[in-house]
Structure formats: structure tokens, C-alpha cells
Amino acid sequence: MDESNATCGKRLASIGLENTEANRQAYRTLLVSAPGLGQYISGAILFEETLYQSTVDGKKMVDVLVEQKIVPGIKVDKGLVPLAGSNNESWCQGLDGLASRSAAYYQQGARFAKWRTVVSIPNGPSALAVKEAAWGLARYAAISQDNGLVPIVEPEILLDGDHGIDRTFEVARKVWAEVFFYLAENNVMFEGILLKPSMVTPGAECKEKATPEQVAAYTLKLLRTRIPPSVPGIMFLSGGQSEVEATLNLNAMNQQPNPWHVSFSYARALQNTCLKTWGGRPQNVKAAQDTLLVRAKANSLAQLGKYTGEGESEEAKKGMFVKGYVY
Questions:
Q1: Engineered SS bond to 269: which of 114, 238, 244, 323, CB 3.0-4.6 Å?
Q2: Tens-digit pLDDT profile for residues 252-290
Q3: Which of the following is catalytic: 3, 89, 132, 154?
Q4: Exposed/middle/buried for 75, CB within 10 Å: 0-12, 13-18, 19+?
Q5: How many other CB atoms are found less than 10 A from the CB of residue 53?
Q6: Which domains does the chain carry?
């Protein structure tokens, strides 16, 4: 739930709503107050506005989440900007003032943080961009832990491109090696982080599609060669996959034992059908919440390796890839 106000505006525009604070508040109230959501969801990443906001009924968003036994978290990065000297790549800003902001977020009830940086395969990726991404994540993680927040480390390898799955694997190996090297250099406690990586898939424009079993095989191979077993949880991002695709891939990864808790941290792949069902109409709130619960339960089952994909709607099967996606 951590889309910036501008990105949240794109979501609202897709159902014909204006990007106002009242509309953002109404939508996020719907999400946090869905009855029983805490059975399937353990944490919610918030945007700064939402962390300090109340629901439509006047209760603090943070308090509603805690009542649901959902841990509140906070997006702390300041977004992507062009990386000078690179091959048209970006870096993530937000380290300035991060320590004092993190302390304030903790006071407000946040218990974990999220920082999203990206690597683009069509643009190289250059050694400079990979190093910058890894160093930024490591500095952020150290500052978060210093302020009592569990850092979610998110090195997203974008789906953009027509490359095959082997190329994604090769790039991800390099990126993750750098990330864990710099985490160690910055004295980050591995037991106190969560990793939020992309699954290893072909580029979105690749003609050869991968089955969930192939995605699982490549991704698990990467995890085993790169991630220390002391990292407690791997929370995969959906990155523009359809709701069903993301769930099937997660399910395939949980068909065998892992030393980690292999789970999900989805935005669009949990909320797309929910948002469309709501459509900004108060009378649709319950139906939209029911849809959200269906998706959350499906991914909860996938995390146990027990999801079948039966009875899914056509909406849930639609891909959500956006070329050059920014938050």
C-alpha cells in the first residue's frame, strides 16, 4: 500500500477517480479494514501519508492494522532519479535525513521499512548501477536497524526487455552477490532483514514464456547460491505479473523445503481486481474487500504450496506489466 501519491493517482484514474486525499483515504481504509485480512497478511507497507492518516471513520490507520494483527511498515526511499555516468540507468535517493525520519516513523508505530531500487537488463546493467543499487540498499538497511526498524531489502530486476530467463538469472546472481557483500560491509544483521526480490522470469517482451515450474527452479537455484540461511524471509515482489501468475509461481517455489520463509509482498497482484470491483462506489466496499480476501487467501495457500488456481476470474489472469514502471 506504499504507492506514492502520484502512483496512487494512476491507480485511481484507472477507475475514473480524481487523485484527492479523500479518495486515497477511502481506498486505503477499504484495504486496512477488510474483515479477517490478518489471517492471511502479516504486514502492510504504508506511504508516509497513510502512516499518519486516519480512516474514514476517524481511527488511526496504524491502530486498525495492529487490531488486525498486521504489522505496519513504511516506504522510506525518495524514488528513482537518473544516475549520472551510467547507461541511462537510475539510482534511488533518500539517505539524507533517513535516520531522523526512521526514528519518527518508529514513534508513529512503524516496525519495518522498505527501500526499492531497480536494475534494468536492457540498459546493461552497468557495473556502476549495480554497485550504486547495492550500496544504497546496504546503507539504508544499516540505518533502519539502528532505529529499530526491520529493513526490507528490495533489489528489483525490472521485467522490461525481450531477454530470456537465463539472462535474468545471470544478472540477478551478480546483483545479489553485490547486495550481500555490501550488507556485510555495513555490518547489517542478516537475521534482522527481509529480502524482497524479483522472481527469475524471462523479460516481459520475450517470446519464450516460462512455466511456474521453470520460474521456481531458476529462482530457488539463485536463492540457494546467493542467500545466507540466516535471512528469515524472502518476500517476492510481483513486478507486473498477473495476480494468478504471481500466485502460481509462488506456489511452485513452495513445493519443496527451503531454509527460508518463501512468501509474498505484492501490491498490484493483490489489489488489481479489488480496485476494479470497488470502482470508487461506497456500495461496492464489501464486494471489493471480499475480492481482496480471495487474493490474500490464494497467496497464503501458495506460501504453503497448496494453491490450485481453480475458479480464478479472467480479471485475475490479466498481466499488469508497465514498461519503464516508476513508483
A1: 238
A2: 999 988 889 999 999 888 999 999 999 999 999 999 999
A3: 154
A4: buried
A5: 18
A6: 5-302 (3.20.20.70)
